[in-house]
User: Fold these one by one.
Assistant:
Number 1:
Amino acid sequence: MACGSSGGCSGCSSASTCGSAQQQPQDLTAKLNPLSSVKHVIGVVSGKGGVGKSLVTSMLAISMARKGYKVGILDADITGPSIPKVFGVKGKARVDEAGMYPLPSKGGIDIMSVNLLLENETDPVLWRGPIVGNVVKQFYTDVIWQDLDYLFVDMPPGTGDVAITVYQSLQLDGIVVVTSPQDLVAMIVEKAVKMADLMQVPIIGVVENFSYFHCPDNGKDYKIFGDSHIDEVLKRYNLLLMARLPINPDIAALCDAGKLEDIEKTGLEDVVLPQ
Ligand SMILES: Nc1ncnc2c1ncn2[C@@H]1O[C@H](COP(=O)(O)OP(=O)(O)OP(=O)(O)O)[C@@H](O)[C@H]1O
């Protein structure tokens, strides 16, 4: 019920007890570390595990770094962190009274992940949702992200409390949705689109991963996962297709060796992100 005051709640002596004040939406937005400077924060999401969300996050970061931008990756996939491994980044992140310092990859991409804080990278993270959500928030508020043009966030999977916390607290400029060309794709994209809509975050576009396999022996493309259903979905929701990425056997080898930055082409060279 509104109290009728035209001046709003701030400064009102009854603000703590008045019913209308209690109905004001809480501002859950987290603030960056005072020493951080980040121009754009871009989340990478998928509605389903294993479609290549972490890979696309990494490839976007590599593509933008190659264009001369200063880039960072916040690995918010706390229970399944894979970013440090594919970049070959090892060791412990430094922490002092000013904050936590990300570790740089060979190509100069700043990375923060729970794996850079654990004693042993194979230790499982057995934390409940609220703690995981708080760790992600701390990666945003406590880490010193210096002079970044783009901070890419490998978003937590699903639409549970951790994902909600991230959407509510990180000031995302937009999200990139990763899908694969299976029948399920319509449902996956729809979920991601609806969540972004509810959280009032714009969708920059969609990347279809595992789209085809290009056979080097005969030059033909094979649709291993069947025909793509992405076009209908893009039309229905008025979304932009940013890229179709092939199944590339080199990726597995480079990821295992921690040398993803050595990949010749990311396939995301032409992607346009907020400037
Ligand atoms: N285009 C591709 N070609 C070949 N291998 C790929 C491709 N995309 C992803 N992979 C491999 O598939 C596996 C799953 O990819 P990734 O970890 O990026 O998925 P994810 O969606 O982040 O998974 P999760 O939701 O479980 O975190 C990884 O081993 C990755 O190296």
Number 2:
Amino acid sequence: MRFNHVAKRHGGSEVLRGVSLDVQPGELFGLVGVNGAGKTTLLRCLLDFCAADSGDITLFGIDSRNSRARAPLAFLPERFEPPPFLTGAEFLAYVLQLQGQRYDAQRAAAIVAALDLEHAALARRVRGYSKGMTQKLGLAAALISDKQLAILDEPCSGLDPKAHVLFKRLLQDMRERGRTVLLTSHALADVDALCDRLAILHGGQLQFVGTPDECRTRFGAATLEDAFMTCVQ
Ligand SMILES: Nc1ncnc2c1ncn2[C@@H]1O[C@H](COP(=O)(O)OP(=O)(O)OP(=O)(O)O)[C@@H](O)[C@H]1O
């Protein structure tokens, strides 16, 4: 995955000012930044939900605006809002159908168990789900088809501590199986523990790209939190 001098304005402000970044196959990569830094905007450009003003993005060597480039990709949006009238199972079946795959009850049971979403919830309408249950369903929908690349915008948002731990195990398992993950997170402890590399987006530009250790060294900090604070001051 390659971002090449990506620029994007919203209204009068330059949200992205020439962002260049390579994410390697098999990497678990964390994109961090303060609220409004432009993380979601960068992902939206990658997914062709909005057009970059300049620059280009490639996925698997293909321009990301080409739907073929996005076929091996799963995405969890920052605000996941499934149709409330569907049951959890119907939603997973719908997502799989969009990808030309059939709903497999065993596979659905396995992924919801891995995220600690109670199995009975699959038969219930999504409108009755709590915030955390909805997030678990979003993660299940993103991960059920085991795509080569997962783009996850704040995946831990709303997860209870148990689901959080289980989700981190799922991510580690994905890495062991060679999957590539690009996630945004405000939880720097997660990024430190899980991510091979991270990028700090600030002022419309990447202020740092490297491993958590390199980040601490670069900013002369003992913790990733302190390094981040120094970076975004
Ligand atoms: N559709 C839009 N129209 C106008 N401005 C927008 C739009 N989308 C994003 N912005 C602005 O672009 C900036 C970056 O927003 P973005 O959602 O990308 O930040 P973020 O880093 O994901 O923030 P957060 O951590 O709060 O989710 C913000 O100032 C936001 O108000």
